[in-house]
Each structure stands twice: as structure tokens, then as C-alpha cells.
Design goal:
The protein contains 6 helices and 2 strands, in the order αααααββα. It is mostly helical and 164 residues long. It has one domain. The chain has a two-stranded antiparallel sheet with strand order 1-2. A hairpin with a 2-residue loop joins strand 1 and strand 2. Keywords: Cell inner membrane, Cell membrane, Membrane, Transmembrane, Transmembrane helix, Transport.
């Protein structure tokens, strides 16, 4: 399980790097959009709003899912659980993690089915006068949720061994 954990950590590290790159591109795009609109009275990059909305922002958010879950950045309601004795706390934690896994794995399956359907249909997005394919982002969605599901499996494994 330790090797598996290291592999997922490396994938998360790669996702964080790529997500950071896309976050930088997003910020530069917004700055160029504002400069063009207010100083030059036209868009410097035609259709950049649609590119940000359909490509950059989803990629930034989706690639951060697994890593943010790994370092426990997600809000939790621990007040109730902390007041339980250790055996009950472990049981509640395992049940909660199992429900999380089930939900995110179902999201993985449904988004994968949707992505395959949209890829087969050749789903496009218009930005300016150009049409762009949506399949790169559509394929990232189920993969990001799959990595998140794997993170939860690691946490369940640790919780079973009382490491959480």
C-alpha cells in the first residue's frame, strides 16, 4: 500500500504542477483581457472569456482535487466525532470515508460516461470565431475524480490500521 500511496502522491504532484501552470495562464489571460478592454477598447485575445470558462478554470480546479484532499484542506465537521470514544470515532470515520468513496466513485463513473458521449458527439465550444474541442477537459473530469477516489481508498486503509 505504501508504493501505491507514493505513486498517487507523484500523480498529485504532477497535477499540482500542471494546475499551477494553468492557474498562471488563467491570471495572465485575465490581465490581458482587462488591459485590452479598458486601455485598447477591444479584446487582445478574442474569446478568452470562453477559454477561461471552459478550459483554464476547470483544469485548475479539477487537478487540485486529489492533492487538496490528501493534505486535508477540505472542511470537516469534527466537533461531533471528537467527542466520541476512540472505537466509535474509528467506526464513524470508516463509515464516512466509505460513503465519500462511494459518492466520488459514482461521480467518476457518471462523468466518464458523459465524457465518452461528448467525445463521440464531437462536442465543441466557440471562443471568438473559432471552435475548440471540449474533450480535453471532459476527459480530465473523471480522471480527477478517480484520483480523488484513490486518495479516499488510501485514507480508508490507514483508518483501518488506526493511522487516521
Amino acid at each position: 500500500m505504501e508504493k501505491f500511496n507514493k505513486v498517487i502522491a507523484k500523480v498529485d504532484g504532477l497535477f499540482e504542477y500542471v494546475g499551477g501552470l494553468f492557474c498562471f495562464l488563467l491570471m495572465i489571460s485575465v490581465v490581458l483581457q482587462v488591459l485590452g478592454r479598458y486601455f485598447f477598447k477591444h479584446d487582445l485575445i478574442p474569446g478568452i472569456y470562453n477559454i477561461i470558462e471552459s478550459y483554464l478554470f476547470p483544469i485548475v480546479v479539477l487537478l487540485a482535487l486529489g492533492g487538496s484532499y490528501r493534505v486535508e484542506l477540505w472542511p470537516k465537521l469534527d466537533i461531533f466525532i471528537e467527542q466520541l470514544d476512540p472505537a466509535k470515532r474509528r467506526s464513524v470515520n470508516l463509515v464516512t470515508l466509505s460513503i465519500e468513496f462511494l459518492l466520488y466513485f459514482l461521480i467518476t463513473i457518471f462523468t466518464a460516461n458523459y465524457a465518452l458521449k461528448m467525445v463521440n458527439e464531437g462536442r465543441l465550444m466557440q471562443a471568438g470565431a473559432t471552435m475548440y474541442p471540449l474533450y480535453p477537459v471532459l476527459c480530465i473530469v473523471p480522471f480527477a475524480f478517480f484520483i480523488l477516489s484513490l486518495e479516499i481508498i488510501i485514507k480508508i486503509y490507514k483508518a483501518k490500521d488506526k493511522q487516521v
